[in-house]
Amino acid sequence: MATPLTAASYNTTYLPTWCPGCGNFGIWKSLEGAFASLGIGPDDGLIVYGVGCHGNMYDWIKMYGFVGLHGRTLPVAQGAKIANHTLPVVVVSGDGDCLGEGGNHFMHAAARNADVTVILHDNQVYGLTTGQASPTAKPGFKTKSTPLGSTDEPTNPLALGLVSGATFVARGFSGDLPGLTALMSEAIKHKGFSVLDILQPCVSFDKVHTYQWYRERLYTLESSGYVPNNKHAALEKSMEWGDKIPLGILYKEDKPTSEGLEPALLGDPLVRLPLEVAHWDKLLNEFV
Amino acid sequence: MRDTITWTIGGEAGFGIMSAGTVLARTFTRAGYHAFAVNDYPSLIRGGHNVVTVRIGSVPFHGVTKELHVLVALNAETVDIHKAELREGACVLFDPKDKEWKESDFPVKVHLLPLPLRDIASELHADTVMRNTIVLGASVALLGAPFEALFSVIHDQFIRKGEEVVSQNEKIARAGYDYVNSHYKDVTNMHMSPGVGTEKQAIVNGSEAVGLGAVRAGLKFAAIYPMTPINAIITFLADHAKELGIVYKQPEDEIAGINMAIGASIGGVRSMVATSGGGFALMVEGLSLAGMVEAPLVIDLGMRVGPATGMPTYTEQGELLFAIHAGHGEFARIILAPSDATEAYDLTIEAFNLADRYQVPVFVLTDKYLNESQWCVPLSHFEKPVTIDRGKLMTKDIKVTDGGFQRYDAASPDGVSFRSVPGTANGQYYANSYEHNGNGHVSADAGNRNAMVEKRARKGAAIQKAALPPQFFGDEKADITFVTWGTTKGAVISAVESLRAEGKKAAVVSYPWVYPFPADATKSLLSKAKRIIDVEQNSTGQLAQLLRAETGIEVTEKLLKYDGRPWYPEEIVEKLTT
Question: Measured in whole angstroms, how far is the alpha carbon of residue B511 from the centre of its chain?
């Protein structure tokens, strides 16, 4: 690309339809900033979106996009990555999409260490369906589907990612653009399954977890001297919630990826390989 | 001398019953015969009653018949279960240590050939599991074939494990061969007339045929969750992934499987899934997604007995209407239904071309009988060159357009629009599960919705025009015209052959391309038919329902079988006369 990439390189003619003040704005701008800083232009990568408020983001990011079915982002992303393992593949998903409908896919994509990045919009509610509890809803959280307060143990995406085999696990905050942009760049650069859980206020359906509520509690792991190389320590940190909530990289590990272990993916991507079978006669002879 | 014999081996699972059938079939195809093997087993790994039936002919034939000429019993239960199928003069090979069978135990006169299988195995320091190899040697002797044909198969099967394993297996097989030749020299009624085939034959099961077709068509990715009866395609693809340069992934479930395959398809490679009815039920949501984003996709749907878990290891044609109607919303699809391994290979290649040409999901509707039976296909059939048509796929030289690349160009006359692949310059678009405009942006605009529905519908109309006509076999002015589809065709053709041999005028119309239904070709074949009989392997006559819906022709006579066992030609003929 001749001109250097900026956030404006991804502009479309569509304007966001999110509620004013929605946490998604910060995630959107951070993602564009991360792509620009990594030199990934509109034709150079693929974003797979789920269905939810988060998923509407595609209309205002100019980049190859796949807007999947609710919950099914990760399988699509893995298939696309196998077709072209040189292509950066990022999943934009929500807590309901990724952990509710798609929970099984999340576990297994992590276990394979598929080389995709999950940007997980975590706001505890289903916004697009006007405010029901999501899998990450904290106990007692009152929503349209939990008028007496949520009773279920909330799903912890960081802990689940860690025990399932994710090799990059981090948490960001949608109210911190520079910090979030840097985390996204790290997550996208990581070779392997990277999970970036992003705390974001839902200004319409959550009057408890506001920007202010988060700002009073958040601290960065980096500033506390934490080193993200120990899974047990990371698990401890993943369960820290309440007065203090950690932000940053909890865990990072170099490990062969799902694609890296495939003999067929050691060279050119599948999409550029010839369709003819090289040793057809030899193969046929096995059946005689 | 016999032109054809049917040989059955039975015993507990885990005793090499299945592999014995394949080895015998291969032994005879190498010697110039036609062969076919079909299994019957419950869903168990050990125990239960496992059976493989091999039919061998000096000339080609379709499937198996009911009559049984050689029964190899690796336990007493096998004789109890199968003795009623034995024809006059049939041979029964058994170990007297299982039971001392007497001629009076059988409904017809048979030759009893006791073989001390356990004693032979123990003399040769072989495990009792090797009884299958002893009986293979014995069977080859009984059929009057040279030992060398069997040895060549044994050699090729075990040479990877070393010469020692080959020679141990040879010794064991030869012991069975020699025992029959020395003790039952006078039993010659099972000797086969010489095989006249000069061409090399492959023995493949239906799943392998689909797999061979897929890789020949340029398959690069498959995501298949294990399920009977399509497991053999997993083995085939996984075993050959490295040398073929393809990727097979085992997904966490069929939902993931179809979404992975769609992702790879959008990524620009030929991809497929395979499953059975229950797994396909989970894929239905993804099928609709493929319809909406216009992703080329091949689905091998191997039917088995339902509903629910049903009888997992038995065969049925119960998913035709399910495949036609599956998926929320309206979108085009193609359903092909091979009748044997040759067609499974051909139609799988065709499926990939159709999927790319029309950017739709294409089904290869197989079943347990096709997938797990061993079929004989001339090697030359697989050696023929194939045509690969990737349709309107653009991987370079895309020009910048206003409003972005028009991936879903509603103006395309046949509804098929050019597609790009992520990573290609100027090809940026959105594959969108929401209703979308030409570039893939969401749109709920009424005019756009109409244009897009009509675009996708035009593909359906174009496909309809390209539909393969039904196949016709038999007499032009037949008194009886059978209609059938899929693997039932073999038995119906055999039935038609026997009816014609009796001087009756009979024909069969069968459908390798089932949907969109070739209605015009059907009307011209059936509108003047005197008596139409539908033959299917389900309880509701699904083809007959489709035929009536699409042509108005009502087939009132139906032969329906739904016990999980394939149709035998004799059953069809019998049902006509009674």
Answer: 15
* Rounded-to-integer distance, Cα B483 and Cα B468, Å: 16
8 A C-beta contact, residue A265 and residue A200: no
> Is the interface score ipTM higher than 0.95?
yes
Cβ of B255 within 8 Å of Cβ of A264? The answer is no
CA dist., res. B80 & res. B66, Å (int): 16
User: How distant is the Cα of B537 from the closest Cα of chain A, in angstroms?
Assistant: 29
Distance from C-alpha of B141 to C-alpha of B184, rounded to nearest angstrom = 9
Instruction: Give the A window 70-99 contacts with B, CB below 8 Å.
Output: 72, 74-84, 86-87
Phi, psi torsion values for B210, nearest 5 degrees = -65, -45
Each residue's pLDDT tens digit, B506-531: 999 999 999 999 999 999 999 999 99
Alpha helices in chain A (DSSP H): 24-38, 73-83, 95, 103-112, 157-164, 177-189, 211-215, 231-238, 280-285
- Looking at the domain B4-198, which fold is it? Pyruvate-ferredoxin Oxidoreductase; domain 3 (3.40.920)
Domain boundaries, chain A: 14-285
What CATH number labels B471-577? 3.40.50.920
Superfamily (CATH) of domain B203-383: Thiamin diphosphate (ThDP)-binding fold, Pyr/PP domains (3.40.50.970)
Beta-bridged to residue B4, according to DSSP, are: B57
DSSP conformational letter for A88: -
pLDDT digits (tens, 9 = 90+) for A162-175: 999 999 999 999 99
